[in-house]
Amino acid sequence: MRNPDRIFASLLSTAAAVGLVIGQPSPAAAQSPPAASPVVPRPGAPQSFADLTERLAPAVVNISTRQRVQMPSFSPFAGTPFERFFGSPTGPRTREAQSLGSGFILSADGYIVTNNHVITADGQGKVETITVTLHNGEEYPATLVGSDPASDLAVLKITLRKPLPFVTFGDSTRVRVGDWVLAIGNPFGLGGTVTAGIVSAVYRNTGTGRAYDRYLQTDASINRGNSGGPMFDSSGRVIGINNAIFSPTGGNVGIGFAIPAEIAAPIVEKLKAGKAIERGYLGVTIQPMTEDLASSLGVPRDRGEFVQSVEPGGPAAQAGIRAGDVILRVDGKEVTPSQSLSFLVASVEPGRKVAVELMRGNQRMTVTATPVLRPSEDKLARQGFGRDDRRFDNFDKDRASPSEKTLGLAVEPLTPGIARQLGASDVSQGLVISSVEGNSDAARKGLSRGDIILSANNRPVASAADLEAAIRQARTAGRSAILLRVKGRGEAPAYVPVRLR
């Protein structure tokens, strides 16, 4: 369920060293030098970014904060006989912290755009001061005009008696893969650093499930401290706000992400005006359409998202959406990997009715839903669905039934006594997993001993014969995976696609 080989981080801590290898000409080359010829860059490739950088750099700023972060109280004598003599701290301790980032001036009167995470204390404390350093080294105190954690954007204001150089947003909808981009920022505190690259992908979905999980991807170097800085197109317009990188090491490997201008610009304008940012919310837990999940459902991989659970009494439940549905369209817009359900619903004004097209089994249908105001990101994180990553063995291959060998699961019918032992007295029928083969796909998906299989391919299972029938049906339909609905101990039921062998 988790992928430890990939780390998605908004702030990064390492840099890559670059070595230059200088070759010597061969004797033959020295004796017969080639005739000089002009070097002509290919169409669209600049000979230099110097003029563009000279024009844009004065509008890019460095941002630093001083924070007072709360730390949990701790006594080294807690739980020992010395605790009553030395006591424990009576309240939480605090420590001073700092953060560094980048930003850019959006108007001559001193409005500045940056990332929200640059000017927050990770939700653990309070930012006491924000300082903006201009391109010429001048420092000014800044005030926070508004912030939006969901989009990771914030607007600051500095006050000067002179007009400031500024830049403007461009049209990120016209950006194409392969276009040149320029990033200017404050990586590792090295202010005024310029890096260049190309747009590697547009509308990249990183799978975080956030409302605005939709980024421009670039190979221009982005590192710790670049957060909040601008990504310029070749005309000097801001088409993105540098936000994060994707890396197995925590350092830059040429995969950086920027918030597209088309998303950022309207939010920034509302923050400048002091308006609240309101987004729609359906009340569903969703899962992207993976290859195994799509195969188990018999649907295309690149369309729709799977509903794992539905919030009781929420907008989706009231509209008749159920766990196990595949949502295909919202308000006439198709759900795709680059246009996630969260993004589409967040773009809907709360209280406005929208059509939701979905697939339930082999049947397509359309329901009408009325999204409500989206809760805070912290509240949504606490509601998130997750299965424990647990390891189980003792799987006897020699004694396993044909269906158990196919899935790598040994199962037995659920009885009232077993249900009580598992704390699932509310479950009347199903199959209890008694062991899991360690190298099976089921084990990799997090299934474990004591989990209860409620259904297979959306049909209830009460015996091994029911499970075998579901496997035969999947094979007959040409599917390489079967969809199990599983209830773990103390968890809500969840759908898990398991590959057939």
TrEMBL record:
Top-tier EC class: hydrolase
Top-rank lineage group of the source organism: Bacteria
UniProt keyword terms in alphabetical order: Hydrolase, Oxidoreductase, Periplasm, Plasmid, Protease, Repeat, Serine protease, Signal, Stress response
Domain PDZ: 278-362, 408-489
Known catalytic reactions: Acts on substrates that are at least partially unfolded. The cleavage site P1 residue is normally between a pair of hydrophobic residues, such as Val-|-Val
InterPro entries, per database record: PDZ, PDZ_sf, Pept_S1C_Do, Peptidase_S1_PA, Peptidase_S1C
GO molecular function: oxidoreductase activity; serine-type endopeptidase activity
Active site location: H117, D152, S227
The keyword Ligase belongs to this UniProt entry's keyword annotation: no
GO biological process, one term: proteolysis
Signal sequence extent: 1-30
CDD domains membership: cpPDZ1_DegP-like
Localization of this protein: Periplasm
Compositional bias per record (Low complexity), positions renumbered to this chain: 27-39
Residues involved in substrate binding: H117, D152, G225, N226, S227
EC number: 3.4.21.107
Residue numbers spanned by region Disordered: 27-46
Short name of one Pfam family: PDZ_2
Family named by the database record: Belongs to the peptidase S1C family.
Protein name, UniProt field: Probable periplasmic serine endoprotease DegP-like
Organism of this sequence: Rhizorhabdus wittichii (strain DSM 6014 / CCUG 31198 / JCM 15750 / NBRC 105917 / EY 4224 / RW1) (Sphingomonas wittichii)
